[in-house]
Design a protein that fits this description.
Layout: E1 2-7, H1 15-28, E2 32-36, E3 47-52, H2 54-67, E4 70-75, H3 90-99, E5 103-114, E6 117-121, E7 124-129, E8 140-146, E9 149-156, E10 158-162, H4 170-173, E11 185-191, E12 201-204, E13 209-213, E14 220-224, E15 227-232, E16 238-251, H5 257-269
């Protein structure tokens, strides 16, 4: 078995101490250890140990999904919804890897088709107005269709399309519902909609969502898992569906989603 170790960039100044300990423990259990610097280093690894926050995990999640690499996250960030282990559980997480005494949880992803390109998201897709420069706009006007039926026309700051995993991120802050990770559903949440009837919509992940522009004059920013991937002025539609890819997280039977939710949201509110 080969275990990779991936650090938050801001954490790398102190990574040598952690890496040496990880290497010593893994090698004593006849497990190879490799330092991973980015997605291109994922090939051939069985498990990736990620030390960082949600952003660090999101930056490597798609590569792990593509290569079928399991992720075990140690939270050294602020929120840490995606990491099942806190720093105090560092030794426990290593023990789980060495003993193989863990369970895994598969998290669904969405596939996004835009302008001939394909993107994958573990958390969410955000289609939002441009807030600076010559492309600045007060609102964007979008139409959403699910399986060919119009859901609504949205005059808003944008739309968020989230997986259950992403429902506790930007979508939650924008007023969306929390979806438990085992639900076969997606959620579309308008951002600051200029309407009293525009509300988040939870729909089956077997459906296909298409987003169309009602007017074509405004610049739109396209953000996938927190990373700006496109700035577009013209497009026919954006198609969103559940991906065949998934991210597999190593967890333990001691972890409970609702316990984590209460703890993390209370930390957030302080």
């Amino acid at each position: 078995m080969i275990v990779g170790v991936y650090f938050n960039v801001r954490f790398k100044a102190d990574y040598v101490r952690y890496l040496e300990k990880i290497e010593d423990v893994l090698k004593s259990n006849k497990i190879e250890c490799l330092l991973v610097n980015g997605p291109s280093d994922i090939g051939g690894i069985d498990i990736l140990m990620v030390l960082g926050g949600d952003g660090t995990i999101l930056s490597i999640a798609d590569a792990c999904a593509e290569k079928h690499v399991k992720i075990i996250g140690i939270n050294y960030g602020h929120m840490g919804f995606l990491a099942d282990f806190e720093p105090a559980q560092f030794d426990y997480a290593l023990k789980l890897i060495c003993q193989g005494n863990y369970v895994t949880e598969k998290r669904s992803m969405i596939e996004i088709l835009l302008c001939g390109k394909t993107y994958y998201a573990l958390n969410d897709l955000v289609i939002q107005r441009c807030t600076s420069g010559s492309g600045f706009s007060n609102t964007v006007n979008l139409r959403a269709e699910i399986d060919g039926s119009t859901v609504d026309n949205y005059s808003s700051d944008g739309l968020i399309i989230s997986t259950p995993t992403g429902s506790t991120a930007y979508s939650l802050a924008a007023g969306g519902s929390v979806l438990t990770p085992d639900l076969n559903a997606l959620i579309m949440t308008p951002i600051c909609a200029h309407s009293l009837h525009s509300r988040p919509i939870v729909f089956s992940d077997k459906s296909i969502l298409r987003i169309y522009r009602i007017d074509g004059k405004n610049v739109l920013n396209i953000v996938v898992d927190g990373k700006a991937v496109e700035t577009v002025t013209q497009f026919t539609s954006i198609t969103v569906r559940k991906s065949e890819r998934y991210v597999e997280f190593i967890t333990s039977t001691k972890n409970n989603f609702f316990d984590k939710l209460l703890i993390k949201l209370n930390i957030w509110s302080k």
